[in-house]
Amino acid sequence: MRPRWRSQLPGSVVAAETAVGVPGATVATGPGPGTPSGDPLLEVRGVTVYHGQLRAVDGVDLSIGAGETYAIIGANGAGKSTLLRTIAGLHRPAEGRVHLEGRDITSETPERRLAAGIALVPEGRRLFHSMTVEENLLVGTYHARPGPFGLAEVYSLFPWMTARRRQRAVQLSGGEQQAVAIGRALLANPRVLLLDEVSLGLAPIVVRRIYEVLPTLVEGGVTVLLVEQDVGQARRVATRLQCLLEGRTSLVGHPDELTADEIERAYFGVGGRPAPARDDAEPGPQVAAGGTQAGPGASAVVEGASVVVEGAPAVVEGAHGGRTRPCSG
Amino acid sequence: MQWVNAIVQGMVTGGFYALFACGLSLLFGVMGIINLAHGDLAIIAAYVAITLVPATHLPMVWGFVVVVPIFAVGGYVLQRTLLQASLDRSPFTTLLVTFGLSVIIENVLLEVFSANGQSISIGTLITNSFALNNVITISWFSLTVLGVAVAVLGALQLFLSRSRTGRLIRAVADDREAAQLSGANYRHLFGVAAAIAFATVALAGLSYGMLTEFAPTSGVTTLLFAFEAVVIGGIGSLWGTLVGGIVLGVAQQLGAQINPAYQILAGNLVFLAVLAVRPRGLFGLRTA
Amino acid sequence: MTTVEQAVAAPPAAGALHARVTRGGRTALAGGAGALVVVAVLAVMPFAVSAADTTLLVNFFILLTMAVMWNLLAGYAGMVSIGQQAFVGLGAYGVLVLAMNGVNSFAAIPIAAIVCAAIALPVSVLVFRLSGGYFAIATWVVADTAQLVISSVTSLGGGTGHPVPGLSQLSPRAFAEATYWAALIVVVVALGVAYALLRSRIGLLMAAVRDDEVSARSAGARVMATRRLVYLVAALGCGAAGALLAVSQLQVQPGSVFSIQWAAEMIFVSMIGGMGTLEGPIVGTILFFLLQQNLAQQGAWYLIIFGSLAVVVAIWTPKGLWGALRQRTGLELFPVGYRLVTPDRADAPARPSSRRLRRR
To answer: Mean pLDDT, chain C, as a whole number?
Structure first.
């Protein structure tokens, strides 16, 4: 094992431990801290993925219990999408394993994983452009597992779709296409639904509407693993949060127990320098103390390489002067 | 009236070209494969017919009952092995591999069957015709081939737009990764598409062998006709292929009307003209 | 050989380490010297070997010229043409037409080649409208059209062809020698032009975009102009090969000079030898002639075996036999690319001897 495979931000390790309240646990290894009772539904152990020479994901661990809404956040190029695509079977990891309900699925194809209960809504919607809305959804039903979601349920989840089901999918707006993509994945009745950047390129109101369906999914027994650049959005919906920085885990914890300050540091790297292995002088407990300072409206929308902090509460303003700065992630 | 006859004959021949071209169109549309061995495969079908069908005691015209299933299975197997292996490399490799196949097939046929021309004899069926007037007579067989072409294109269209497998094939053609995420096994679906394409090639090859003499080297000519029909009609459009075939057929017959030696040349020139003026073809959806 | 050197900043974690970017090497120096020796030996060949062997070598040079040109097109510019026999045929007919009008057949070779390049310009306007496989078949249609048009010209012998006039004035021995030297000059020039082209900025640009149609298109007009230049050069080279063919065979027949077999041979030779290298076509052509000579009695089987070999190589060793050899050993006789040489790594893709070479 390379010595640096587990080198996370020391500060964030403490933060996570403190936040979760399990002092002896290390971050995100095995059935890690914060896992609800029982064995994890989806487990990722030490996964490393290369894009050519680039180590896009570097020894990441992840453990999700049934019924969770788990959010992975991080800047552009942090390896979030790659991690999700690896879980869905589109990338083969160079190292590490992926388990679903204790079964090793690391070497299985995406279609076998769908049958096992993993469905990915890929970044950029990826609808079938020669097809109508309904045909796109039908393709989702062809290899479906038995479960609560059928065409009727999807249409009731997104009522506008019924009237427009004969339209070509490419004629829809971005938000509508995103809804169809979610519907298509949902029709497979997955155990775990992976959502990759559903908010990308959409207006905030549209994003909110899409996220409104999440509770219905959870009620339907679907576990959700989502990747978001919009930290505020992720914090609002997630039961647990994991931040990636340059392919490695920089923070894990419950959103309520993490401060905006902590998250921002995990998001960009300490002191704005993308050097995750660097020692952090700031002790963790102080950070944990500020856990409740972040109001529910905290929202750091990140687009591309620049950061826009909108409506950020005092803790963000105070800590970093609310500045907008480039991030070379 | 001779000119009208040329146009009518050209339109009838066009159906045959469309039958040839639809397999080429399907392979390109679904997998992005330009199958340079397409014409040679059709010639194999004709040779398979004259070799195998006599043993079955079926009339030659029913030869497709034997040859089409063989080709469908062969297409599936070839796709799952050699073609998929080259697709996994690159489109560039696939092009070179199908070209290699084309040369190999042509020379193996030369070694096995010699360069002599042969034909699939179906007796008087090929000469039966009806007269529209005292100049224009239309061969029943040619008209049947046109009918088969229209039926095949229609069935293909229906299959792709209505059936589960057809929709999955379109899904894979649209976005392979997204289709995989919906549970589609793209390798199998590619195999199915190849099976269908090979079946249509077999039909086209048999019609060719019945209509005219063929030799191992005929594959090149037929490939060029099929390709010209696809480009003239517009790449990616099934019905455009039919129109392309008809335009090509009419152009060739008009050329032959001027001078029999100009038949193929006229077709090539129309193709080049379409390329110059309207590179997307008459009904093209996408650029090549 | 020039060696470009530059320090590359290594990741801090790995510590500072100097790497150089190089294209030359001692083997390349040896390659250059060796090439000179080989050309010198080849130049005096007609005095040492039989007339039959001279003819064989002429055919070798002709195919090698075509293969080098096809390799330029496909291996570097990413354009798979299956219609280069159009220019082979036009080159041959160029010599015929010029000879019929009293031009010396040997003097006609370069003229015919230039005519081919001139014809390739309007042809490129047409076929460049398509890409990938459709480009390939379009070039094929052009070749077919060229053959049909030439075959319909009765003054050139129509479909049966025409002997090249004026060649009987030379003694058989003098004619064989002149043909041989003409072929040698053509192939050396072809290799030299290809080498120069590939080492130029144009070569780098082509290498950068050859596998990627989208980036090639988005890179815009310069790439298109470069591709067009390569297409013209390939037409020139294939035209010269065809002109040689006309001279060496003493007559021109459309079915023979426009044959798809030329395309097949030049493609297989490049594929087997290795596309994207200058050595590949040489290796492939040598292999082709070995196979052809040993299977000459078995009809078309040499082509079947060679074609099968090409398919196998394309799938399992896409860089060809030379490419595979180079990957194993780092051997490069005619280096056209750049590579990174790091002094401390045993797995660096270069041989130890090339490490110390520096630019003065």
So the answer is: 83
Contact A142 B168 (CB under 8 A): yes
- Would you say residue A139 lies in a domain? no
Q: How many domains does chain C have?
A: 1
- pTM of the complete model: 0.82
| DSSP assignment letter at A212 | T
Q: Is the complex ipTM higher than 0.90?
A: no
Kindly state whether C135 is in contact with chain B, defined as any CB-CB distance less than 8 angstroms: yes
| Interface residues on A facing B, Cβ-Cβ cutoff 8 A | 88-90, 109-111, 114-115, 119-120, 122, 126-131, 135, 138-140, 142-144, 184-185, 188
- DSSP letter at B139? E
The CATH number that applies at residue C57 is: 1.10.3470
**Is residue C235 in a domain?**
yes
The verdict on residue A104 lying in a domain is: yes
A&B contacts, CB < 8 Å: 69
Give yes or no for a contact between B249 and B142, defined as CB atoms under 8 angstroms apart.
Answer: no
Q: What is the pLDDT of residues A299-322, one digit of tens each?
A: 333 333 333 333 333 333 333 333
**Domain assignment of residue A216, yes or no:** yes
Contact of C334 with chain B, judged by CB distance below 8 Å, is answered with no
Q: For residue A2, is it within any domain?
A: no
Residue A308 phi, psi (nearest 5):
-120, 115
How many domains does chain A fold into?
1
Q: Is residue C2 part of a domain?
A: no
Distance between C239 CA and the closest CA of chain B, angstroms? 22
Q: Please write the tens of the pLDDT for every residue from B211-228.
A: 999 999 999 889 999 999
Tell me the backbone φ, ψ of residue A300, rounded to 5 degrees: -115, 100
Q: Which of B89, B91, B227 sits opposite C137 (nearest CB)?
A: B227
Separation CA A226–CA A234 (nearest Å): 8
- How many angstroms separate the first and last alpha carbons of chain B? 38
CA dist., res. C109 & res. C107, Å (int): 6
Q: Does residue B134 form part of some domain?
A: yes
Q: Is residue B287 part of a domain?
A: no
Find residues 70-109 of chain B whose CB sits inside 8 Å of chain C. 82, 85-86, 89-93, 95-97, 99-101, 103-104, 107-108
Q: Which domain holds residue C244?
A: 21-354
Domain range enclosing B229: 2-277
d(CA C310, CA C304): 10
Count Cα neighbours of B166 within 13 Å in the Cβ-side half-sphere: 12
Residue pLDDT, tens place only, B52-68: 988 888 888 888 999 99
Does B60 fall in a domain?
yes
In this complex, the residue of A114, A138, A144 whose CB is nearest that of residue B181 is: A114
In a domain, residue C8? The reply is no
| Residue C156 confidence (pLDDT) | 93
Instruction: Summarize the confidence of residues A234-254 as an average pLDDT.
Output: 93
Residue-wise pLDDT tens digits, A14-60: 333 333 333 333 333 333 344 445 689 999 999 999 998 899 999 99
Q: Is B163 on the interface with A (CB under 8 A)?
A: no
Q: Give domain status of residue C12, yes or no.
A: no
**Any chain B CB within 8 A of the CB of C218?**
no
CATH no. for residue B225?
Answer: 1.10.3470
Mean predicted lDDT score pLDDT of chain A: 77
CATH of the domain at A286: 3.40.50.300
Cβ neighbors of C113 (< 8 A, separation 6 or more) are C91, C94, C236, C237, C239, C240, C243
User: A314 to each of A260, A287, A310, C293, how far by Cα in Å?
Assistant: 10, 15, 12, 86
Any B CB within 8 A of C304 CB? yes
Per the DSSP assignment, residues forming a β-bridge with C251 are: C163
pLDDT of residue C109: 96
Do A126 and B177 make contact, defined as CB atoms within 8 angstroms? yes
Q: Give the phi and the psi of residue C57 in degrees, each rounded to 5.
A: -65, -35
For residue B51, give every residue at least 6 positions away whose Cβ sits within 8 Å of its Cβ, in sequence order, or none: none
φ, ψ for residue C99 (rounded to 5)?
-65, -35
